[in-house]
Amino acid sequence: MASYTKRIYVGNVPIGKGAPISVQTMIKVKTTNIDAVLNQIKEVVEVGCDIIRISIPDKDSLKALKKIKNKSPIPIIADIHFDYRLAIKAILSGADCIRINPGNIGSKERIVKIAKAAKKANIPIRVGVNAGSIKEEILNKCKGSIVDSLVKSALETVKVLEEYDFYQIKISAKASNVIETVLAYRKLSKYTDYPLHLGVTESGPQEPGIVKSSIAVGSLLLDDIGDTIRISLTASPVKEIIVGRNILKSLGLLKEGIEIISCPICARCDIDLLKLVKEFEEKTKNIKKYLKVAIMGCVVNGPGEAKQADIGIAAGKGGGVLFKKGEIIKKLPEEDLLDSLMFEIEKF
Ligand code: SF4
Predict the structure, then answer these.
(1) What are the structural domains, with CATH classification, of the chain?
(2) Residue nearest to atom 1 of ligand 1 (CA)
(3) I need a surface site. Which of 40, 138, 168, 230 has the fewest CB within 10 A?
């Protein structure tokens, strides 16, 4: 939650100047399939999504956007490529923010027309640069450097908006490569105080994508860079939100829900800890209060190794113990471990 950036609002969600880092994702069904879109919005809101982005590739999507906007519980960003007229119409259809890609939105005049409409509607614009769509002339000027080209492309578009006295801006500069992404954002943060939207674009399938995104987004957030995040995975948007929120939780930037401390399992473990942890995750996924809960595989190292937990259980042969802040408070048979833990959590 960078404190040095400017504050903008996407709908009612504050971004920048110390606001909590918001987590966003994108709808992955056709925009024209309104019911499916609303269903996906409902699913991501349930796991903590703050803002949703929707592609507007054509006129039919514009009509759908209007209806979706009326029913969405969270602000909507309209994602526009190529056609500036769609951006203007999306603004008129009620979008809370517009994302444009400087690599394909066209001339300065077109960007100014979008800014004019956004200014009238009092909504922000995301200048969203992607490594794969940087203009050839910028790449040439930057001697092929992706990092420099991402930064130059973003800042040139920001300058066009500022010339028109438009300042409700956020910026992204994404590559599919972790190092290029990190270097681009680090450089960008030296040249601008507009809020930054972090993410690795096209980061790949779930497992490698989570690793790439966590390294890039996590490193930047540790550097106090970034105001809102989107994890891009070839996976469900629900997964993207869960991963995004887990990154924030790991960095202490989001204190909400149950943080599970569980051991990696070794030969000392006498129960099916994997199953126990999965059951616990399922049972607690909707709990909002922040608690650190340990689930450890043995009584020998369990309570001691999980001292930082508010409460926890450590399994043993046919049973285990319940402990608070590392102190054992109760011995329990195996079948009562989870229920007793849940009972104690409710009391917090
Ligand atoms: Fe092994 Fe016990 Fe440590 Fe789990 S807590 S890894 S079972 S020693």
Answers:
(1) 8-250 (3.20.20.20), 258-347 (3.30.413.10)
(2) 266
(3) 138
